[in-house]
Amino acid sequence: MYKRLLSAAILSLSALPASADDHACGKVTIADMNWNSASLIANIDQFILEHGYGCDAELVPGDTMPTGTSMIEKGEPDIAPEFWSNSMREGLQRGIDEGRVRYAGSAFVEGGEEGFWIPRYMVEKHPELKTISGIKANADLFPHPEDASKSAFYGCPAGWSCQITSENQFEALDLADSGFEIVDPGSGAGLAGSIAKAYEREEAWFGYYWAPTAVLGKYDMVKVDFETGTDVQHYKDCITANDCMDPKATMYPAADVDTVVTERFATRAPEALTYLKQRGFTNDQMNGLLAWMEDNQADGEYAMTNFLINHEDIWTQWVPSDVAEKVKDAL
């Protein structure tokens, strides 16, 4: 019944007549990136900018590198709602220096989160497992799926950038000396599946994961404290490098996940820009939304409607009351 109501709401949105002040901020193109959180945010931005600020907002396909390059070189699209800036830091800085793009706020107010995790039910039984020293002292609690004489650490899939960082951290933490061996999950789905399988059976699990993700929205995991603090410079200089010769353990620093806009858009639509500066999600909020998307097989548009209908407590904090009323009327 709920799905039918949401579907009806989506259909009714497309039939809404344009109001007199629509298109007041002109045509706005928004990058709809090809992963769930970015697509959800893009759809939210489109709806709020169109119905709350009178923009002629259009979604266009996007991905990190081609979108960033196009914004800098061609001035389009106008908005990249979820941009993992570390992946293109030098190019973005050049665009800023040349007056082509700017940062407009944070998509994730706490930044992207990475770390080594274990299920909460294990911590409840063995509180010492919250720390890496506790993990190493109890390595026998994490049997390897193929060799019970060894302990299992689930690494990042081969070919992903996090494979480099997680393996450097594994070496820096001397986990092999405690009997751990890296298990290659084969794929992102394989890594997620290993957590789901462990949770269903309340079995041991220890490995790398990141947030915000549907997995950390569905399964209560605890991030292991490396007891090292965070050395951001060493992380950038060595832990992220394929040829890091002397890795030293450090907690993962938060990854910058920004909203990037063209300077042209920022200049012509200051009120819309203010909204983008205010709009942002905590990792817990986005984890929950992504879990809902996965459970309901929802795309960005369907999830946007669910969000605007059921989470007014979040999005009404981003906009003035008159804009919030326009958005509610459109719903």
Automatic annotation (TrEMBL):
Keyword Signal found: yes
UniProt cross-references to InterPro entries, sorted A to Z: ABC_Gly_betaine_transp_sub-bd
SUPFAM superfamilies linked to this entry: Periplasmic binding protein-like II
N-terminal signal peptide: 1-20
Superkingdom: Bacteria
GO molecular function, one term: transmembrane transporter activity
Keywords on record: Signal
Protein name: ABC transporter substrate-binding protein
